[in-house]
Fold this protein.
Amino acid sequence: SQKIEQNSEALNIQEGKTATLTCNYTNYSPAYLQWYRQDPGRGPVFLLLIRENEKEKRKERLKVTFDTTLKQSLFHITASQPADSATYLCALGENSGYALNFGKGTSLLVTP
Amino acid sequence: KAGVTQTPRYLIKTRGQQVTLSCSPISGHRSVSWYQQTPGQGLQFLFEYFSETQRNKGNFPGRFSGRQFSNSRSEMNVSTLELGDSALYLCASSLAQGAAGYTFGSGTRLTVV
């Protein structure tokens, strides 16, 4: 069956450290992978997209890697800040459809 | 520019009733998707519309339906509501297939009692 797995346990890190979130998938052939941030009571906010032929993407303090052999994406936030505390969702898109398939998200808490 | 607008923000309905939710996408965005979010299942795809045509539908019963108007605004309808339909319903718009990212609204929180 198809699965998208993100760390179900919350990730607690200290301000200034690098947060690394994992997204593993099985039985998907994604054309691209997206990362979103979601705050309580709000809709997800798009952060980054990486395509199947790309290994790494960066945007300011964010970095995403995509390994189609391992079927894994890693999402890094460097120099983390308390304002980065939120739930982070990964989502896969396939060429065959128009749906995003979401993981259940990882909750990140950055403490001062 | 204005974001994706969903109305209403909150809704309480009784089992067996039907409900209509509305979504106004970002101006110029022709693709509108709907998702259901629950604590147990996370975000699940309902359907996607482009230029008034449904291009894809998720694995939901026929009680869930939607449509898109010529101005790209979209509505979704749930008939014969069940307690399990209680969820946050999110609308997202994008320029094309969404390969450049989707913009989500704040959602409609539906509670079925």
The longest strand of chain B covers residues 42-50.
